[in-house]
Amino acid sequence: MSGAGKGEGLEGITAGETAVCTLAGxxxxxxxxxxxxxxxxxxxxVAYLLLYGELPKPSExxxxxxxIAAAAKLPEPIVATLKSLPRNIPLMDVMRTGASMLxxxxxxxxxxxxxxxxxxxxxLMAQLPLVMSTAFRFRTGREPREFEPGKSLAANILNVVxxxxxxxxxxxxxxxSLVLYAEHEFNASTFTARVVTSxxxxxxxxxxAAIGALKGPLxxxxxxxxxxxxxxxxxxxxxxxWIRNALANKVRIMGFGHRVYKDGDPRSxxxxxxxxxxxxxTGNERLEKMADVIERTITTEKKLPANVDWxxxxxxxxxxxxIELYTPMFVCSRVTGWSAHxxxxxxxxxxIRPAAEYVGPAVRPFVPMAER
Length: 372
Hints:
The protein has 16 helices and 3 strands. By secondary structure, it is mainly α. It folds into 2 domains: 210 residues, Citrate Synthase, domain 1 (Orthogonal Bundle); 97 residues, CATH 1.10.230.10. The radius of gyration is 22 Å and the shape is globular. The two termini are 24 Å apart.
């Protein structure tokens, strides 16, 4: 193919309308700024907002949480399959397979009504974190653990992955990260979900495809690459020297720059104080200072502010979570945004079929095999 051209990567192209999220002017979910939601709402409240359009009343949130808790179980055949999978495959592959398998056991699979979509989403909200934790526990030689009723998704994820009750500050930090990852307009995985939905495929197909898109290192996988960088810097011991050498050699540092945000990702600014707090509590202040040197240098020298992946990778590291869980946890959050967009697409649907500008050879005569 030729080099970058007009509309490369659909940059600057408006591909549709949405009432779920906007990044124009200020990032907001259904009219509420991301700052207000991160400061005042739980992930469950935000999930309800994305799916139902309004923040829940106390009784609505209680009923929502009860439905999520009731759905938090995996069919035995899925558990058996997760146990049989090779231990060395990426957990994102497991998440993709898990989403597809869950379709076979969802009684609402063929129900394309609004209520059916919402029920299926609530099932996936409860089940995908269990796919992640069950597969992870099997590959680390442990039996699966169930989520505890009455605990938040953030608390349950930390509990079943680490085998210990999380501290309140850890739950709060995890909850905020889930809020920030829940939705982000027409990003690659969300647009994938909408394209699949536009064919009138089922919700599980759309979510499975979205997980495949999220796996890529230019999208969800970026937070994993962040820790690769920080491990190299920590081993070197001199963050200033390391980053200047990397920039001089044109090494791409993941976690900086964004297609949409030119003046900084608001999610990064929200989560950074949580990183600083956890670094102090867990004895990771040296690593946090190194990360700050790298951030200042890249922002100053390259005019590339940090995006949300830069602090979130550190946040999960300070919680003692292995890198292989970072992007699967993104799935556990973003399934709410994907589903909200899939429902929106389904209710006002037209097959998404863009045109392409052809840049290949002009029409030419066919040459028979004997004459080539």
